[in-house]
Amino acid sequence: MAEQPKQTAKSNKGATVFGVTSGKGGVGKTSLSVNIACEFSRRGYRTIIVDTDLGLANTHIVAGMKPTRTLSDYLDGKCPLADIIETGPCKVKFISGGNGVKEMANLDDAGRARIVQAVHDVKPHCDVVILDTGAGVAKGVTDFVQASDHALVVTTSNFAAIADAYGIIKVIVQDGYKNPIHAIVNRVRSPEEAEQVFMKLKGCTERFLGFDLNWLGLLPEDNSVEGAVLKRMPFSEAFPGSVAARYLAKLVTGLERYVSAVPKPVPQGAKS
Ligand SMILES: Nc1ncnc2c1ncn2[C@@H]1O[C@H](COP(=O)(O)OP(=O)(O)OP(=O)(O)O)[C@@H](O)[C@H]1O
Ligand SMILES: [Mg+2]
Questions:
Q1: Ligand 2 centre from 6 Cα, in Å?
Q2: pLDDT tens sequence across 191-202
Q3: If you measure from the C-alpha of residue 32 to the centroid of ligand 2, how many angstroms do you get, rounded to a whole number?
């Protein structure tokens, strides 16, 4: 097993950054990012999502938001960082990446470094930061994974998705990523299917990279995920009793141990 961070007494020492990524596109990063953020927030953690899928950012759609300002405005110097932070569902704070903005998709090293700096700048004000990245192995993805304390690599059981998940792990490890990497297997029909996918991926990372991949968990194929997008709500809010919401809670319980902050007590029956 990969070396796990030591369990220490919890203290408010600034946020833990989780970078949600994948090799292949369309495997569920954004759905997971938004709902993981909501679940952390429901548990009393001050949570922010930064949409770093530059140029094709769509986290706001899954979150049911209409952001008025984006990272693009911040980079252009039109407003300070604080002015692009909006509040979304479940009181999650939110920074949008800008959709259909060609300049963002082609952002240079300096531009990406400013976004990484922005992530560091918001850390003292929250407990959990979720970076929803794009797919692939380009710098526009890997720079943000490198900025995270934990990388969450999402795959489905699709063979190409597994191969591409290996590809992104290979690139970030060879670029010197030393923090834990966790796998999430999405859209599975059974826990056994998820386990088989994970074992394949883990086998490859151990054998070819000498890297120990962690198991985080699975999300089943569930119509409520897509149904919630149509309602423009996170599935865990629209369908809290769904199977997907139940597995999501398990995923977040698995992540909670890496968060050093103490959550604020959530009043019984509190609504988001
Ligand atoms: N567990 C699931 N069950 C059913 N549908 C799902 C599940 N997870 C994701 N989906 C659907 O898969 C599609 C892709 O999901 P999503 O946009 O979250 O993927 P992504 O990895 O962020 O894509 P991209 O690489 O384009 O950013 C969406 O239509 C979403 O509703
Ligand atoms: Mg996405």
A1: 31
A2: 999 999 999 999
A3: 9
